[in-house]
Design brief:
With about 450 residues, the chain is mainly alpha-helical. About 75% of the residues lie in helices and about 0% in strands. The protein has helices at about 15-25, 25-40, 45-70, 75-85, 85-120, 130-140, 145-165, 165-195, 200-205, 215-230, 235-240, 250-280, 290-300, 305-340, 340-360, 375-405, 405-415, 420-425, 425-450.
């Protein structure tokens, strides 16, 4: 037994929303969303993605945060307290494992953003009048194994440093600075992208859907992105919810988090694809899309040198809010359940995740040809976590809150701090119940079975 009497809490409602949005808003929106949209038909993908966010994402987000706020514990401890069942504790454990695996490959890309700050300061991003030059430079950098692994290590150390300082002094304080800065810079970049010749083709690609392009693969990618981007199924939102006061409004906060997440994804898509089409680039180049397009924007933009530094600095901070939430999931488990000190948990598991991340960092150079099921180590860990572990975690969270916990108890808990919401919209509880009991589990299981080639 480990006492929660000294457990930290968020200093304010806005602190929680920004920290949770920081977990959700990061490379998942600015790096992953645009390239997945590019690979899956643009507007058709976005249409499915928005449906996934509202129909499945927000109800599951409310459920996950509510579990954490109710128990004031980590994912494993929460399910253990509410169920007394080893099975449900194992589901919590799967979330901790998912967070750990995602941290390992996510930090590789986060390291690229830090590396591009250095490139921006050196003026190396101001030489790209044509996209081929930016592409060649990015390829040259990522083929350098020392560059990749070194930046991975540096970013992991930054992440470990913030988590070491705790909830209010580390995570919350940083989020209040990082998130507004990123939002303002993205707006500026979006406006600049919209002024480029040919930008209208990018908007058409993003907002004029060809529904014939919607297939099982697009749906799978959209659902996986919804879970990845909103940090669902990995225990991050549950862990952050465990630091909430009972007076805070869980549904209201969840909608704010989802809307911030979705807005920044769409704004990022506009930033990227207006430039992609204005400069004649290919929209489906994959994970390196942001590093091939934005340098071209900075070259064409007045004050581009200054904005290039600020943007990659802000992007690095946004990535940092996400890696911090991932490491916090693992840290909270070992502090709560195993009695470890925060310092010990951060140092041990940060270092372990760094070691697991090295094969992902080498997937772009030394291990590029070492593939499993046609995927590099980086691609494999990304697929397993975002397309399998996260949806499975969301599936069981929906079942737990919808069926196992006892919905009368659930209603009592979710109404705390949100009486005005359910007073004005009493039908929301019935809608939420139907989504959690039937719609979300059925849709998730269909997509999972499809991804495994079973149906």
């Amino acid at each position: 037994m480990h006492s929660n009497s000294k457990r930290e809490q968020w200093g304010s409602k806005i602190g929680f929303i920004l920290a949770a949005a920081g977990s959700a808003v990061g490379l998942g929106n600015i790096w992953r969303f645009p390239y997945l949209a590019g690979e899956n038909g643009g507007a058709a993908f976005i249409f499915v993605y928005i449906i996934c966010v509202f129909v499945i994402g927000i109800p599951v987000l409310v459920a996950e945060i509510l579990i954490g706020r109710t128990t004031q514990k980590n994912p494993v401890g929460s399910f253990k307290l509410l169920s007394k069942s080893p099975f449900w504790s194992g589901i919590g454990g799967m979330g901790v494992i998912a967070a750990f695996v995602i941290l390992s490959f996510y930090t590789v890309v986060a390291g690229w953003t830090f590396g591009y700050i250095i490139e921006a300061v050196n003026g190396n991003l101001m030489n790209y009048n044509i996209p081929e030059t930016a592409n060649s430079h990015f390829t040259e950098l990522t083929q350098n194994s020392f560059w990749n692994v070194g930046l991975l290590a540096l970013f992991m150390l930054l992440t470990m440093g913030i988590v070491y300082f705790g909830v209010q002094k580390g995570i919350e304080r940083g989020s209040k600075i990082m998130m507004p800065m990123l939002f303002v810079l993205l707006i500026v970049l979006m406006i600049r992208g919209l002024t480029l010749d040919g930008a209208s083709k990018g908007l058409e690609y993003l907002f004029n859907p060809d529904f014939s392009k919607i297939n099982t693969g697009v749906i799978l990618s959209a659902l996986g992105q919804a879970f990845f981007s909103m940090s669902l199924g990995m225990g991050a939102m549950l862990t952050y919810g465990s630091y909430m006061s009972k007076k805070q409004n869980v549904p209201g906060s969840s909608v704010w988090i989802a809307m911030l997440d979705l807005s920044i994804a769409i704004i990022s898509g506009i930033c990227i694809f207006t430039v992609v089409f204005a400069t004649g680039q290919n929209p489906d180049v994959g994970p390196s899309l942001i590093f091939r397009t934005l340098p071209v924007v900075f070259t064409k933009m007045p004050g581009g040198y200054f904005f290039s530094i600020l943007f990659f600095f802000a992007l690095t901070l946004a990535a940092l809010t996400s890696t911090v939430s991932l490491l916090e999931v693992v840290t909270a488990y070992f502090v709560d359940e195993k009695g470890w000190s925060r310092k010990k948990a951060v140092l041990f598991f940060g270092s372990l995740s760094l070691l697991l991340g090295i094969p992902s960092a080498l997937s772009f150079n030394l291990l590029a040809d070492a593939q499993i099921f046609g995927l590099t180590f980086f691609g494999l860990t990304e697929f397993i976590s975002s397309n399998l572990l996260l949806p499975i975690g969301g599936f069981f969270i929906a079942l737990f809150v919808g069926w196992y916990w006892g919905f009368e108890t659930v209603i009592q808990n979710v109404k705390e701090g949100a009486e005005s919401v359910f007073g004005k919209f009493p039908w929301l509880l019935g809608y939420w119940k139907i989504i959690l009991r039937f719609v979300a589990p059925i849709l998730i299981i269909i997509v999972l079975l499809s991804s495994l080639g079973i149906i």
